[in-house]
Design brief:
This protein is of the alpha+beta class and 142 residues long. It contains three helices and ten strands. It has a single domain (3-141), classed as Roll (PH-domain like).
Length: 142
Amino acid sequence: MNHAEVWYGIAGGVAFWCGMSYYFARLSGWTFMADRYRATLRPAGKTMRNQIQRIGEARESGVTTLVVAASGLYLRPLLAFRFAHPPLLIPWESITRVDLGQSFWGRPYYDLAVGGLSTIRVGEKAYKEIVRYLGVATPVAA
């Protein structure tokens, strides 16, 4: 194997990774939310990991860090997943509805509707931090 083949392999892998990241950004609605809620600074607040279960139609696996702040809900993916996923700061008034659901294992989850653009599914621990900032009514059972 020569050096050119190695570099082509690396370039192909990077291109594939970026393509998949872009696909998931579209599938989740992240690109639409970024048009409206792109963040430049990380706000001070409660940082939570492994609390986002799904964004739009894309399942999460601990990729996105969540910060619950007075100014809104801040989302930022891990470094390897940032292509096409800029940080977001979603103001509390943009969360228009909360739906309560239950997983197969009986654990509650909360789907936060974000301005008609997407939904963010969070676990109970995150919701307990989020609920005090929300202006929407009590969750509706899904």
